Amino acid sequence: MTTIDAASIELENALPVCDGIVRGPQFLDTAKYPQIAFRSERVRIKGPNSMEVVGNLTLHGVTRPVVLDTTFNGGYAGAPGG
After folding, report:
1. Given the DSSP bridges, would you call strands 2-5 and 35-45 parallel, antiparallel or unpaired?
2. Is 53 exposed, middle or buried (CB count within 10 Å of its CB: 0-12, 13-18, 19+)?
3. Alpha-carbon gap, residue 3 to 44, rounded angstroms
């Protein structure tokens, strides 16, 4: 399971006021919902460097199934297959 501190989310190249709006009650409401969570259930290999990660995303206290298309970028020195 992966959790994200919702208050840590920043918009790239945006004015600071925009970050405040995204963290505020209009969008993420980080005061009420401080975490975003993803729990994977299975991984399906699609190609040599791509896979599909199936799991559940919890946002605003609501959990829904999601499918994430991912790309393997080579890992780190010493990693199997890296």
Report:
1. antiparallel
2. middle
3. 22
The answer, yes or no, to whether residue 25 has pLDDT greater than 90, is yes
Within a 10 A sphere around the Cβ of 40, how many other Cβ atoms? 13
Q: How many residues would you count in the chain? A: 82
**Across-strand partners of 74?**
none
Q: Letter for the amino acid at 34?
A: P
pTM: 0.77
Which three-class secondary structure state does DSSP give residue 8?
helix
Helices (runs of H) and strands (runs of E) counted in the chain: 1, 4
C-alpha to C-alpha distance for 66 and 40, rounded to whole angstroms: 9
- Residues paired with residue 51 on neighbouring β-strands, in sequence order: 45, 70
